[in-house]
Amino acid sequence: MGPDHEGGDEVRDRGHNVKIVLIYENGDANTASSYSFPFVYWYAFVYWYLLDLIPPSCILLRENRGKIMNQNKIQEKKDLVWKEQSRIFRKIKENGFEVYASSLKKLSDMFGVQDGYVRCVDEGTPGGFHAAGSGILRSKKEMLKIFRDAGVRGVTSHDGCGAAKMFAKANCKDETCGDAEGKKWAKELASELGVPYRHISFAKMQRPKEFHISRAAYYDGTGCFNFGDGKKLPPGYIISRQIQSEKASLSEILLGLNISFGPNGFGERITEDEPFILVAVGKTKTDTVRLKKELRSLEHPYGKKVIIDGFTAPRT
C-alpha cells in the first residue's frame, strides 16, 4: 500500500485505496481521524447506497418487464406450433378423422409392438401404457393391480408433470415439489412391480418445456396406439382405456381438456371453428362406436369447442 499524499488532495492512493477524513465540528485538525480501505469497498458502499434510493416500484417494473418479454416469446412460440398443426387439422376437418387416418401410409406402424412402459398421458411422452402421472392421482393398490394385469415392463416419471403437481399441491401444500413427488411415486411403483424405473427429462419429451401442444386427446381402446412424431397424426394426450375403467379414463380426458384450455395450453386459440378433438381409437368399428358413446357422456364446460371423432385401427 503506497503512502497517501499530504493535504488529503488525493482520494485514492496508488494501491487503489480510499481515504476518508472525518473533521469534527470544532474544526480542530488534531481531532481529525482518517481511514484507508480498498476502493472496491467504497464502490460497493456507493452502489448499495444508490440502490437504497431506487423506489421498489422501479425494481418491480424491471422484473415485470422481463416476465412480459418472456411471456411474449412463449405466445409467439405457441402461434408457430398452432400454425404448423393447423395443416393437419384442416385435412381432418374436410372428411373426418376416419377418412384422414385411413389415407395415411403406414398407419399400422402407429399400432406396433410397444415397450410396455407406463407413461403419463402427457403428449410429450407417447408410447406404452398411459395413466396421468403414471397413476399418482389414484390409490397405489388400484394402480398396482391394473399394471400387473396389463403386464407392464417399466414405469416412468417426467419433468413438468401436471398430475404430479396436482398431487403435491393437495398432499404437500407445495406444488413446486411436483417433480420430486412424481419420481418418488414412479420409483415405488416400479420397485413393487419388480420392473425398471426411468425418468424422462424435458430434453427427451416431444413438446416444448413451456407449454402443452395438444389439440386432441386419444381415447385408446387398443392398448398399442402411438401417434408417432406428430407429423401425420396430431400430437395429443393418450388415455389407455383398454387397461382402466370408463370412469377413470374419462377423468383423465377432463384433466387434459382443463390443461389445454388453460394458460399452459393453447387456451383461447381453441374455438368452435377450430375445436379440440376427442378421438376414439377402437380395435374394430363396433369398438370405436362404443368408445365414442362413452366420450359423449363426459360433462365438461367447453361446449362446442370440443368435438368427438374417431377411427379404427387397421387390420394386421
Structural write-up:
- Helix 5 crosses helix 6 (178-193).
- This protein is of the alpha/beta class.
- It contains 8 helices and 10 strands.
- Helix content is 40%, strand content 16%.
- The longest helix is centred in the first third of the chain and has 40 residues, at 56-95.
- It has 2 domains: 6-53, no CATH class; 81-312, no CATH class.
- Strands 4-3-5-6 form a 4-stranded parallel β-sheet, with helices on one face. A 4-stranded parallel β-sheet has the order 8-7-9-10.
Describe this protein with a few key phrases.
single chain, globular, alpha/beta, 4-stranded parallel sheet
Query: What is the C-alpha radius of gyration, as a whole number of Å?
Result: 30 Å
Number of strands: 10
Side-by-side strand order of the widest sheet: 4-3-5-6
Q: Uncertain regions: pLDDT < 50 for 5+ in a row?
A: 1-25, 29-37, 46-51
Q: H/E order of the elements?
A: EEHHHEEHEHHEEEHEHE
Overall 3D geometry? globular
- Quaternary arrangement of the chains shown? single chain
The percent range for helix content is 25-40%
Describe the main β-sheet briefly: 4 strands, parallel
Average residue-wise pLDDT:
86
**Relative strand content:** 15-25%
Secondary structure tally, helices: 8
What count of domains describes the coordinates? Answer: 2
Helix- and strand-based class?
A: alpha/beta
State the end-to-end distance.
Answer: 87 Å
Explain the layout of strands and helices:
Layout (H helix, E strand, L loop, with lengths): L16 E6 L10 E6 H15 L2 H40 L1 H6 L14 E3 L9 E2 L9 H11 L3 E5 L3 H10 L6 H16 L3 E4 L15 E5 L16 E4 L5 H15 L15 E7 L2 H12 L9 E7 L4
Parallel strand pairs: 3-4, 3-5, 5-6, 7-8, 7-9, 9-10
Antiparallel strand pairs: 1-2
